[in-house]
Specification:
The protein has 8 helices and 19 strands. By secondary structure, the chain is of the alpha+beta class. It has 2 domains: 184 residues, 2-Layer Sandwich (Alpha-Beta Plaits), CATH 3.30.70.20; 95 residues, Immunoglobulins (Immunoglobulin-like). Strands 10, 11, 14, 17, 18 and 19 form a 6-stranded mixed sheet that branches. A 4-stranded antiparallel sheet has the order 13-12-15-16, with no helix packed on it. About 8% of the residues have low confidence. The structure holds iron/sulfur cluster (3 copies). One iron/sulfur cluster binds next to helix 1 and helix 4. One iron/sulfur cluster binds next to helix 1 and strand 3.
Length: 318
């Protein structure tokens, strides 16, 4: 049987909240019984993009993780309240609205995706827009409203779904033991770390970006990733598992001793100090303090002549 599955792509989501608004539009002020009673206007969020951040200034990245009921096959909610939750044969999990007048039901979802409707006094959640799907709709309102197709519904056999998971590298948002039907693409933006740094060298007394330089990432003296610096002399290595522990960066530039920098990956991504290759063969590399990177970033952001900048903006406004 073709069953409900959902893909959420973290790389595409920009946190526009259209999905949440579409869900509100569909359910606030509308009773879709027996699927669900109407959604509370404020507070309740059956689908919610949440902002997450990686890195430290001057380099940070923002990713939105959109969560809704995961329509789990091994659902803790249904285990705890077997009379309240209804698992449909197409995989969608519904709440029996007549039996949901217990506020404790909200705590049965480890993803925090059950809402308490204060107005009606009942627990509610995403229905997968079952009332629409049963009437021939190909996708729920939130999916239809996503301008970047960061959400995608897939109705297929479970065996085919397994192939899609493998091909697209989909991951569950937690450990997968609840067997969620919602899977995430590019989840590393949320649950893995990166290391970033910048390399430069002295050229006739002027600091130049070390462009096209080979950079290795090592764990226990074993190279686990290799990259080269870009036109700004910057390198970036992603998808490092959290709590990897001690790691090392090695950078190689002709005519200079390699730069070697130890660091540690715990829960957060690491932005390394700017590093300068030494003055020549045999001379040690110079590790510049982080403030240096800050200054460089600020130099680019703040116009040196504020008055001239203001004047230029005024000219542009005319
Ligand atoms: S996400 Fe929460 S509410 Fe939805 S099926 Fe899983 S445990 Fe139940
Ligand atoms: S599938 Fe329907 S009920 Fe679920 S979050 Fe999307 S719009 Fe809301
Ligand atoms: S509508 Fe799409 S892009 Fe916008 S927040 Fe929702 S999932 Fe992200």
């Amino acid at each position: 049987m073709r069953k409900f599955h959902m893909i959420v792509d973290l790389e595409k989501c920009v946190g526009c909240f259209n999905c949440m608004l579409a869900c509100k539009d569909e359910h606030v002020g509308n009773k879709w019984l027996p699927y669900t009673d109407e959604q509370q206007k404020h507070e309740n969020k059956w689908i919610c993009p949440t902002m997450t951040e990686r890195g430290v200034a001057p380099y940070t990245e923002v990713t939105y993780v959109t969560k809704m009921c995961q329509h789990c096959d091994n659902a803790p909610c249904a285990k705890k309240y077997p009379d309240v939750f209804i698992k449909r044969s197409d995989g969608l999990m519904l709440i029996d609205y007549k039996r949901a007048a217990d506020k404790n039901i909200v705590d049965a979802c480890p993803y925090g995706m059950i809402s308490w409707n204060e107005d009606l006094g009942c627990a509610q959640k995403c229905t997968g827009c079952a009332h629409l799907i049963d009437n021939g709709w190909k996708e729920p309102r939130c999916v239809q409203a996503c301008p970047l197709r960061a959400l995608q519904t897939v109705f297929c056999e479970d065996a085919e779904w397994e192939k899609i998971i493998e091909k697209q590298g989909l991951k569950p948002i937690t450990d997968g033991s609840n067997k969620p039907r919602v899977m995430y693409k590019n989840l590393y933006f949320y649950n893995k770390c990166f290391v970033k740094g910048a390399l430069c060298f002295d050229k006739d007394g002027i600091e130049e970006a070390a462009v096209g330089v080979k950079v290795e990432l090592l764990v226990n003296k074993t190279v686990v990733a290799t990259t080269t610096t870009d036109f700004l002399g910057e390198f970036y290595i992603d998808m490092i598992p959290k709590n990897t522990g001690d790691m090392q960066i090695k950078a190689y530039m002709d005519g200079y001793d390699p730069i070697v920098k130890d660091f540690e990956i715990k829960e957060e991504s690491v932005v390394l100090d700017a590093m300068k290759f030494g003055g020549g063969e045999g001379k040690p590399a110079v590790i510049l303090p982080n403030e240096h990177a800050y200054e460089q970033a600020l130099d680019h952001m703040i116009p040196k002549d504020v008055e001239a900048a203001k004047k230029a903006f005024k000219e542009a406004d005319k």
